[in-house]
Amino acid sequence: QWYQRRVRADYKGKWASPLIDNPNYSGVWSPRKIPNPDFYEDKTPFASLLPISAVGIEMWTMTKDIMFDNIILTDSKTVADDWAAESWNKKALIEILNAPGDSPIKQWYQRRVRGSKYDGRWAVEGNSTNLKDLGLVAKDKARHHAISAKMNKKVDFTDLHDAQKQFVVQYEVKYQDTMECGGSYLKLVAEADEEFSSDTFNDKTLYSVMFGPDKCGLESRIHFIVNYKNPVTGTVEEKHAKASSDFKEIFTDGKSHLITLVVDYDGAFEILVDQKSVNKGSLLTDMSPAINPSAEIDDPSDSKPADWDDKEKIPDPMATKPEDWDEEAPKFIDDEEATKPDDWLDDEPDHVADPEAVKPEDWDDEEDGEWEAPIIENPKCEAGNCGTWVRPQKPNPDYKGKWAPPLIDNPNYSGVWSPRKIPNPDFYEDKTPFASLLPISAVGIEMWTMTKDIMFDNIILTDSKTVADDWAAESWNKKALIEILNAPGDSPMDKFLTYAGENPWIWVLLAAAVILPVVFYVYCSGGSPAPVDDGAEAKKTDKVTPDDDEKEGDKEEEEGEQKEEDEDMPELEETEKKEEEEEAAAEEEEAEEEA
User: Is residue 545 pLDDT above 80, yes or no?
Assistant: First the structure.
């Protein structure tokens, strides 16, 4: 047949008569329509969707290694797009760039990535509280910002460790608009074989330490991340400090805040916000993943035996379903005690035409059709008391559900299986991780933010917490006090006392500014002034002085007055003594009467 169809030119196949219109054709039959007893009209199905309480993945697949990532539920497509911009967009681009070959997209990226991605503007501007106090400001929202500077002297942690010094990084940040989403952290760039260039600084630049605040939505943290080089494999891995606490107000109060990291030569670290500790730990015990790996690891070649039973409980094989167990009983039943409310309106529809609506003057029935008033919710049904009344349901006291045998201890239970341990081929133990941190050659800010006008100021790297405190005393301490005193609310004195109570260092600053100069003046002046000789003063100034006779007269008069006071003194003492004796006698009489 195939040969006849495809090869023979005269083959026509089986003959059939041609089709004509059926003179008795009745059309396509369909059953008649009747009112739907289950009819309802939901004009807001979005609001009727079931509330969501959890997220799960439940599936069957014939494919292994399916990866899920970056799951987000939000009420804004913009938020989802921003989330994708920081996750999937970068990932998709990396996958393209890592694909074999030299695609046009890869060539374009290599030429344009710096100019196209980091389009956020920087400016040096005055503080919103004090325009003369300049700072570095990231100007734009929804932009990537990058700026960096090479250090004149690199930070070598080996030198700091040998001298038993500290590593301190400190800077100020001020969110002049409430922080919504974005970073405001420093990246301390690791020394590399190639000389550092600000033109190529980006998010792929290897850093030694990343430190500073970050916030998006309800989640906020102060990053402290070190890139640690594995001494065995040579690979570099990020090590994250545990989360900090008690700092979230810095994103919303509009004030300048001091962010400080102190790492001691023994590996102990502390994070401070406004000179108050928000996190403490050790490089040896409080980083994730840990600096030092485990000495033993699970054997990847080990597998659970086929006869291993890890079920601790099993259904009781001897149990039987009770005879009175009714699996068909419904979970809920009608509440026979319920009665229809007196104000129930059986014939009132849930929605009615708006009685206050007016047909527009420019409405044309011929062009626009017959005008109908818009439908609104029936005001008589605000309490949900309209329509056919249905008896409410209540839990069925006889409901037991599907029967299942009780669980008993599994007599064949083998315990929780775990693979055997083998020595970790990549094991090492670094007891001085501080000295192993990558040397720092530059300081940079590389971030994405949804908040504009973030100000950075007074960045300092030093080997002494005392130096950082002195730096803050001459900068942030004064600035913070001015911002508090200028803020609306209580009187400046109340604000000062409140601030001083929370920050005791202000009293030290006050003593240095007021009390010490007074003490210094008294000390330099040599005590109380010496008495001035009237004669010497007269000779120097030609001052008019009384005659010597007048002086002697005055002296005798003063001596006479003193003599009279001395003569009167015994009489006065005798009078006072007599009064005291009379008071004592009176007190004794009162005591006798009371007795």
Answer: no
